[in-house]
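Single Protein Entry

Contents — chain, fold
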Amino acid sequence: MTMYATVDSPLGELLLVGEEAPGAAGIALVSLSLPGQKGAAVVQDGWVRAPSAFAEVAGQLREYFEGRRTRFELAYAQGRGTEFQRRVWEAVEAVPYGETVSYGQIAERVGASGAGVRAVGTAIGRNPLLVVRPCHRVIGADGALRGYAGGLERKERLLELEGVLQRTERPLELEGALPCTERPLGLDAGLVAR
């Protein structure tokens, strides 16, 4: 049975999709997507809204956005993606909090250097678990932020949260309002699946 919940976050409302984890308490996460994300999951007929099933996921996300968690300890649904994609995603998961690697470095780690860098970029772009599988930590060889299914601004914000990039003050432009400055990624209230 496929279950889902939504969670508010500093990046926008997250859609969590999962399946019952056989032999284990809780849920195996299938997808975590952001609003407007390229290839984002869309709630389907027959899916069951089950916020309580995602309580642990929501708690870990809250800790991450508050700067108190550097690694996720979640069950992921098995058998997703091709064998190559799974190798790439495993290499991405090994990139530590607060560090970045290039697409070329990931390609080397999975034995696909040279022309394989493009295939690695494609596999990273198909990562169904944004934020928790940290594809935002993969950057261009020149240090530039390149591709992120959730948008480059969100990639930048995640890297700022992790201390990789210096926080930049960006004015918010609201129609009819005086300019103000964005607040950091912290949350005022708890992150709760709904």
In short: Residues 170-190 have pLDDT under 50 and may be disordered. The first helix runs from residue 55 to 65.
